[in-house]
């Protein structure tokens, strides 16, 4: 589904990503782990297009997207979430989801000027679709709350639902469990499993190794900007380099 | 050619005046993260304080100290009663810009009824002209250059060799860490505003002395020129501000000689906008860190 | 009530309302800190002026030097003003598009407006430099005698129609999915682009739209005042408008209108009233007015940053048909 070849990213003399090549297979949750400063988040940002690669190519579903800006990658189905909460705070939860929907006629300047009669059908349809998602993830009662007022775990869910409104082919999750209350982590992991079963491909950066254990197969390990191991969790635990790098037990 | 050499001479004066203003300004930004848009107005207010002393027969060189003292107190008060409270409240960067613009408008308009619209000048504004080849500078201008050099050395000594200077650099680099290491950041910030405020006041008097005459409206020009030098050198970097002042001083004087004196300030303003758009981190790229030379 | 006084009040109110609606679109809704706003109003005014004036070689006009002079009839100068306002937004917008910290961006734009003002002030052949343009013809002066009360009513009517048109456009934009996308971009540009929104296109578009509306406000103003000089559009004018939007309430049109009435119009009226009472030296009242504007800005930023009319929460008509538990399979829906 996605192939990244020899990605480099340097900035001010530092090689955050130093020649990383990865193949992401469809229908699986691939984990990306490694010690702090390994370059995982930077690599994710490069894949998503938030940061430009200094060199290397990225091929997504047969198309070379290396030169495309982030918003065009998102339109092609490559959607990312962020490690820090990035909900649209002054918009309601429902509005957060509605913004993401790509096929609303009212979203262009012309469409807006043509007025409600023009875009209301699209809007009604999307509101129903968004509510469906909210119901599934248990946040329907909160639809009119300001997204900025939610708890960390709820914000994370809103981000994921937002991404889902785009019907993504590949979802890049940057530390989805960070900032989430431990009691919610299991619930969130359950949702991710459901998504995988529905056929959404996921690449996920994560620190909590028990989550990686449960969800991710295969797993890629990075350290100091390079890939130092890949395979199942079990196989990786055996690799000397990985153990040396950071796994404790 | 001789025109260019003469322009170079004026450039030396310009860069001295700008450096005095820019260093204080950039230190305010580096240590307290405040782009103080009222800086130009404080400069002008201090220049007027010195003017009134000057009218009372005090030599401008002594009145300068009065201006510096006024600048110190005024800047300290503005921070204590306006900037710090808003920052403490968590006001966003843009909000702080609006706050300092509001303060600058209030200062310039509060001065109007007192000072009036007319332009004024110091009694010592004319002085003997000395020639060095193609360069013609007045005694005043030479003293200004010397003053600027002395102040730059003093700032360098402060930052590099004194405990306060080290505390200032630490606070600039990482305020939270500095506080955890036992540095009384609040008192450091107070000191910063007093010191940079006095630089601001001094710079105001010097700039006013160097111009033929000055009015309240000159405040905006002073501010933007200082801002240009500070941003060009790297916001928050005192040595950057000095370099920025050198460049802007020379470029503006050369442009005045080669092109037109009307647009001297526009050149400085244009440099500011270009730097902000093309290379906002300025020349000395490390943001927020007061790095000592050597 | 003196008709001329009423006209003055209403027309200035209309112009300020239009300007605040434009600034609200750029700043309140989209988060673009256009601190060079006054340049767009000025561009529109100059454009309308040179489009409606005869060439500077004409007998009564030869004391001025300026480009243009096409003597076009109404409504062409007003339309031209809007177009020029939008065009000027293109190069300035390039500055805005850079991802800069908000305060840098604001300052860069503020300085840009000062540069524009200084250049026009000094370049006499362009737009008559510091003296500015005078004897700008009034719209429809062939139709109605401009010294009559009827003309005042006509002008008020034209202004009112313009306000209605701008209000219509602004309302449609703000209350649409497009407006929602702009607000999302304001909240978090990075997240918006990760969801497929093109921030550069969005910002540039709203910048041009706002610029065009600002240009129209300038055209209306110059047709009434018949003069326009650099001293009319100094940078503090932008600050008054920002104060208006902040006081009235960001992000919503009602707030923008309220702000326009409270700040620029309110202060004008208070100044006029106090001026009649002859308190203190002549400098004092305008200077105090500015001090009060400063205090007003600080007061609102401290006590009520959301403004008098904050942005409304949008609630959708509840409990419509909810699609049954949808399951997403890549590209199609299962079950």
Quick recap:
Chain B is mainly α. Chain B has 11 helices and 2 strands.
Question: What is Rg of chain A?
Answer: 19 Å
- The gyration radius over C-alpha positions of chain B equals 18 Å
Largest interface: A-C, 64 and 45 residues
Helix content of chain A: 25-40%
Strand order of the largest sheet of chain A: 6-7-8-3-9-10
Top-tier CATH class of chain B: Mainly Alpha
How many individual β-strands of chain A?
10
Q: Mean pLDDT across all residues of chain A, rounded?
A: 86
Describe it for me?
- The complex is a heterotrimer of chains A (249), B (294) and C (335).
- The two termini of chain A are 33 Å apart.
- With 249 residues, chain A is an alpha/beta fold.
- A six-stranded mixed β-sheet of chain A has the order 6-7-8-3-9-10, sandwiched between helices.
- The longest helix of chain A is centred in the middle third of the chain and has 21 residues, at 116-136.
- The model of chain A has no long low-confidence stretch (mean pLDDT 86).
- Chain A has ten helices and ten strands.
- Chain B has one domain (2-278): ABC transporter involved in vitamin B12 uptake, BtuC.
- Chain B contains eleven helices and two strands; from the N terminus they run H-H-H-H-E-E-H-H-H-H-H-H-H.
- Chain B has helices at residues 2-32, 39-55, 60-88, 93-115, 139-161, 163-173, 175-180, 185-210, 218-233, 238-258, 264-278, and strands at residues 129-132, 135-138.
- Chain B has a two-stranded antiparallel sheet.
- In chain B, strand 1 and strand 2 (135-138) form a beta hairpin.
- In chain B, helix 5 (139-161) crosses helix 6 (163-173).
- Chain B is globular, with a radius of gyration of 18 Å.
- Mean pLDDT of chain B is 88; it is low at 287-294.
- Chain C has helices at 3-29, 37-52, 76-97, 102-122, 124-127, 149-174, 177-187, 189-194, 199-225, 236-248, 253-277, 284-303, and strands at residues 328-329, 332-333.
- Chain C is globular and about 65 Å long.
- In chain C, strands 1-2 form a two-stranded antiparallel ribbon.
- In chain C, strand 1 (328-329) and strand 2 (332-333) form a beta hairpin.
- In chain C, helix 10 (236-248) crosses helix 12.
- Chains in contact: A-C, B-C.
